[in-house]
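User: I'll paste a sequence; please echo it back and then give the predicted structure.

Assistant: Echoing your sequence first, then the prediction.
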Amino acid sequence: MKKLLVIAAVASVILASCGGANGDKAQTGTEQQVAEQKGATFTVDTAVSSIQWKGYHKGGFDPRFGTLKSEGTVSVEEGVITAGSFVIDMNSVLTNASSVDPAKSGGKTSVDLDGHLKTADFFEVEKYPTSKFEITGVAAFDAAKDKSVIADATNIISGNLTIKDKTVNVSFPAKIVVTDNEVSVQSKFTINRQDWGLAYGTEGDPKDWMISQEVDMELNITAKK
């Protein structure tokens, strides 16, 4: 019996450490110099572009997912992205209603979660209404050493992601397609919310412990001349 209890305890620790995230793990570092804008400018088509997010409870249970709205521009020279700047509207955070079951959440709905995410517990949108991503570099994807959940990934994008008052440089694989009149970027990567100090309550708070630190971000961006 004691042996079974030990096995169960170890299994629970392993399960708790798994966030359930399934994007490419973003590489993070200190803030870098923003890339110089060179070449033609393409503007994000907000009607067809999307930013999707997914968060989890510990062990990957009861994921919450939804969308954010963004606008911005991409610079292209000789068929290659040279720079880009995007502003994310944090007031636009929208949780998909199907991801919140009031029967399991004490009567709380997706609308309640949207409101909570906008408070000082998380994004504090009254003080920080926007987040920002600025490209610092775009490198070729090397299939011999780079791995990605994105089929036919072409590049590694690096950029400064600013959330609230914290800026962290993140790098992730992406599939980039450039034509004369359009640029498309597809990516699915995972970040650690703690890198931006996004914690629910104080350090070690049980409420925060119940939420996985990993958050999936999925980008489907189209920019046009």
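Residues 2-17 form the longest helix (16 residues). The first strand starts at residue 24 and ends at 25.
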